[in-house]
Design brief:
By secondary structure, the protein is of the alpha/beta class. Helices cover 52% and strands 13% of the residues. It holds the Pfam family CMD.
Length: 389
Amino acid sequence: MAFLTVAERTIAYRDSGEAALPAVLLAHPLGMSQDVWEGVIAALRGRFRCVTWDLPGHGASSGLTEAVSPRALAEDALALADALGLARFHFVGTSVGGVVGQQLLTQCPERLGDVVLTNTGAIIGTPDNWHTRASRVRQEGLAAMADEIVPRWFSEAFAQGDAAAYTGWKIQLARTDGESYARLCEMLADTDFSGQLRGVVGPVRLLGGREDLSTPPDTLKTLASQFGDARLEVLENIAHVPSVEVPEAIAKRLRAWLGDEHVVENGVSYAAGLETRKQVLGDEHVARASENATTLDAPFQNMITRMAWGELWGNDDLSRTERSMITLAVLAALGRDGELELHLKTAQRIGLSEAQLRQALMHVAIYAGVPAANHAFSMAKKLGWGNSL
């Protein structure tokens, strides 16, 4: 957990730290916390740099003392992205997190890659219901209302099948700052993105749950009509927070959806390959390679950018740490020292662990020979791998 101060408020956030990977910001629903993404992030590890944060008054973030707007919440997300050096990022948001996504789409589409909005709407609920809830929260407190609110988040099957998690989310709601929750309710009462999303540039996907009482499928269908080509999928037997109920299924969809516009009819585009190459090797290395290119090897640089980095490293079937292990083993076995040194440095950039490197080189020893592995171990140690016993 880390903290960022924005406009005299403290934002609690988590960053998976995989700086060489495409970044995705994930925003949670009202009354919950960034913990809703834990299962999804675990399944995305090695493929995306995942950044989550607690909304005001939720989790470990400080609370609100004045009215709030979707723009203010979007500014929090942008401040977090700026602090982490993320000029562009994918975005995934559920419920009020989806409202943040809609604001970002209207405010700064140039900062966004792919956007996935789940269990949300251009309008969520009715103003009267939100004002009533805000008033009750201030009078009764969230702990007293937990038995009423939490059942709307999950399907009956989940509530009965994972009682510990279900109870845990009741406790989380009770710990949420009531005034912040009430102010967010009042924000939702005034929020209407109808007509503001037409002409939005960039891929948008919508996801809902058949058993969602708060943002039922019809709400998602209405939102889909706001976009030119947004695709909607409704999950059966799932309610308002699919990232908690079926995290692996959500992660599988995100792996397929985020960045899939780069795949063209004849393969991955040069631009997509170049982006992947920069993420893995670093901007400086790629810039040097481009600056040193001549008429002799420029076509070669183009080819490896499309094929090695676009088609191979850009493919989602293996994580980048897995591809790094394979690459290191092959280069060590073949004795390609120049490339081996480069990829040993790259392995550090993308977060390969010492144990993973050790196992890759031990495979080399068994299947390609001890001298080759011994030489690779020696190179790795010179580059800073390993600690003294």
